[in-house]
Amino acid sequence: MLELRSLYKKFQSGIGNGRLALKDVSLNLRPCDFVTVIGSNGAGKSTLLNVISGVFPVDDGQIIIDGQDVTNLPEYKRASVLGRVFQDPMQGTAGSMSIEENMAMAFKRGKPRSLSRGVLAKDRGYFKEKLSSLGLGLEDRLKEPVKLLSGGQRQALALLMATLSSPKLLLLDEHTAALDPRTAQEIQDLTNDIAKQHNLSVIMVTHNLRLALAVGTRTIMMHEGEIILDMRDPERSKMTISDLLRRFQDAKGEMLSDDRILLEA
Predict the structure, then answer these.
(1) What is the CATH number of the domain that holds 239?
(2) What's the domain range around 228?
(3) 148-182 pLDDT, tens per residue?
(4) Which of 1, 58, 206, 230 is least enclosed, having the fewest CB within 10 Å?
């Protein structure tokens, strides 16, 4: 479903030779693989999602999604095959627009556009059906501006919108990190259900080591732009956080020192 071949990405800082954010990153995802990505700040996790989605071009390497080479395609041309949810609930939705207007935009992602009414009557029933599956009562609030929703409701809507056009791949960039623990768990449960329902391949970035081992089918760890660990079930399902930290030390010859990761462990 996804093949990354020797990706390199450098950011020029204006001083010296810049910073190599991705170094020879290769990765293969099968259909329905659910991969959690962990690593310290600056490890290259978000950069990885940004090059897959087309936000950043790569300096070298290939990106193939569902058999199609998308390496040189702009972001909007990849929109039909992938969806993305960000850490900030406000980033994936337009607050001043209504719930149904947001859904109409998501429904048309990657499709030809024309001059017509933004929300078609024939689509409204479909939107209500999809919203009702969230169990949040949003199907009765179609006309309300999204800015009136809570963070959890808005993130649930963003998740639904990201999968509305039946993508092949779902990219999640710490999409529960800005939520309180109870809401974060509800959104994660919803994520798991949607991934199974739509047979999606998923890449989920997280700082939470416990969550990374508990969710999905595979965990990779990045460090300084490289993938240094790649763990699959059933081996992964037996691992503890202590095992994971020990594997990092064995791979890099040093202890993991990122405070955020260790505090969330």
Answers:
(1) 3.40.50.300
(2) 2-264
(3) 999 999 999 999 999 988 899 999 999 999 899 99
(4) 230
Question: Cα–Cα distance between 50 and 31 in angstroms, integer?
Answer: 21
**Percent of the chain surpassing pLDDT 70:** 92
Q: In this structure, what token pair is assigned to residue 34?
A: 């659910």
pTM: predicted TM-score of the whole model, two decimal places: 0.91
CA distance 165 to 205: 22
Q: What angle do CA 199, 201, 204 make, to 5 degrees?
A: 130
What Rg value do the Cα atoms of the chain yield, rounded? 19
199's tokens: 């047979």
The token duo for 151 is 């963070």
Q: Where are the alpha helices (DSSP H) in 133-240?
A: 151-162, 181-197, 209-214
Question: What is the per-residue pLDDT across 90-102, written as a single tens digit (0 to 9) for each?
Answer: 888 999 999 999 9
How many domains, the chain?
1
| Sign of the CA dihedral with 264 first, then 225, 171, and 169 last | negative
